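Person: At home tonight, work slowly through the protein below, taking as long as you need, and write a paragraph about the fold.
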Amino acid sequence: MEMIIELVGVSALQTLLMVFFSTVFAVLIGFPLGILLFITSPTGITPKPVFNTVLSRIIDVLRSFPFVILMIVMLPLTRLLLGTAIGTTATIIPLSVAASPFVARVIESSMLEIDPGVITAARAMGSTNTQIVYKVLIPEVLPSVVSGITLTIINLISYSAMAGTLGGGGLGDLAIRYGYQRFRTDIMIASVIVIIIMVALIQFAGTKIAERILRKR
């Protein structure tokens, strides 16, 4: 029993580290991409149809890749950057790339729901495009963004479990190497239970944070 607790505890920590850093990098990449998608759209504050179409297609292509295939495709890049293509740290790179397009679309769709009158009013008061983005658009979409990032984190937990099939570490790796390959059903069940608990806690926290932001508006 102690061995199971130790194995699951270490693997859970690896999963949390993968998901945390992947979320940070995905938001750093996806947030500005989402803003670009919105402001360059036909209804955006600086329409650029050609640029918007190209960027949109690139994001759609990245979103369409199944994660396991994306991870395999990125093995050379991961090995080049980190010197290894397996393990917890190496998995962060494909996880970040997989989640970034999702974050970008979340930001874009949230901003598309903003009442155009809000932007018009900001322009009438002499706001620049930069001021509109930082003082109008971002504050308006924060609750939706929090909900979207919550979904992103949950997806990343799922992706990190799939990464275990390629030696990515974490609970997925534990469930496959110990639970499946060594016929340890107890370890597999324990891994699944911990993943379920993680998802439930993250969803609860995300919902509460979004509600709190809404109450303060």
The chain has nine helices and no strands. The mean pLDDT is 84.
